[in-house]
Amino acid sequence: MQGGKLYVGNLSYSVTSEQLKELFSGCGEVKEVKIIEGKGFGFIEMGTQIEAEKAKKDLGGTQFMGRSITVEEARPQREKPRGGRGGGFGRRY
């Protein structure tokens, strides 16, 4: 796991950063909370690797705001292709 970062999925669209921070603070120090608006997921950065493992174990699959949340190790963000038109739409051959 990279530095205590976690992916949290199946979130209620009405969840706030404060609510998520409060939930995860039971497992240790919460350094950062980032909710992706309108997508139902977000990211939590815990203080240590051990705290992140505890949060994953303790909170994965639990009910939060009426939903069973997913807690997994966050994967590194993929690089987006640069330049060009991208996607191939609108090309003529």
Percentage of β-strand residues: 25-35%
How many domains, in number, for the residues? 1
Main β-sheet description: 4 strands, antiparallel
CATH fold-level label: Alpha-Beta Plaits
Structural class computed from helices and strand pairing: alpha+beta
Please describe what this structure looks like:
The chain is of the alpha+beta class and 93 residues long. It has a single domain, classed as RRM (RNA recognition motif) domain (Alpha-Beta Plaits), CATH 3.30.70.330. Helix content is 20%, strand content 28%. The protein has two helices and six strands; from the N terminus they run βαββαβββ. The chain has helices at 17-24, 49-59, and strands spanning 5-9, 30-36, 41-46, 63-64, 67-68, 70-73. The strands form two sheets. A four-stranded antiparallel sheet has the order 2-3-1-6, with helices on one face. It has a two-stranded antiparallel sheet with strand order 4-5. The radius of gyration is 16 Å and the shape is globular. The relative contact order is 0.26. The model has no long low-confidence stretch (mean pLDDT 90).
